[in-house]
Amino acid sequence: MVINHAGALRKEYFIAYMNLMINAFGCTDEEAFDKTFQRLFQSQETYLGKESYQQFLLAFDQLKKK
Q1: Based on C-alpha coordinates, what's the Rg of the chain?
Q2: Is the model's pTM score more than 0.85?
Q3: What secondary structure does DSSP assign to 1-57, as a single string?
Q4: For the chain, what are the domain ranges?
Q5: Do 17 and 2 contact (CB within 8 A), yes or no?
Q6: Is 57 exposed, middle or buried (0-12, 13-18, 19+ CB in 10 A)?
Q7: Could you report the per-residue pLDDT of 6-57, keeping only the tens digit for each?
Q8: Burial class (CB in 10 A: 0-12, 13-18, 19+), 34
Q9: How much is the pLDDT for 1?
Q10: How far is it, in rounded angstroms, from Cα 23 to Cα 8?
């Protein structure tokens, strides 16, 4: 998935990305969270901006509730 650094990424993007991680690697929700944080955010909360990070956390909360 290509990331455009021009704006904040939405919750739906992160849900789709983490579901992709779960399906591709057969990992848990928590492992998908960690892989996504490492790959997209370079393990830095501010890498894609505060709004994207907040959307990422919301996506993880929603993913856990499934």
Answers
A1: 11
A2: yes
A3: ----TTSPPPHHHHHHHHHHHHHHH---HHHHHHHHHHHHHTT-TTTT-HHHHHHHH
A4: 11-65
A5: no
A6: middle
A7: 688 999 999 999 999 999 999 999 999 999 999 999 999 999 999 999 999 9
A8: middle
A9: 59
A10: 25
**Residues comprising the chain, all counted:** 66
| Euclidean distance between CA atoms 6 and 59, whole angstroms | 20
Residue where the block lists tokens 């509730």: 65
Whether residue 56 contacts residue 36, with contact meaning beta carbons closer than 8 Å, is answered with yes
The label of the residue with tokens 């290509």 reads 2
- The pair of structure tokens assigned to 21 is 């991680």
Instruction: Give yes or no for a contact between 22 and 16, defined as CB atoms under 8 angstroms apart.
Output: no
Signed CA dihedral, 4, 7, 41, 17: sign only: negative
| Phi, psi (degrees; rounded to nearest 5) at 41 | -100, 0
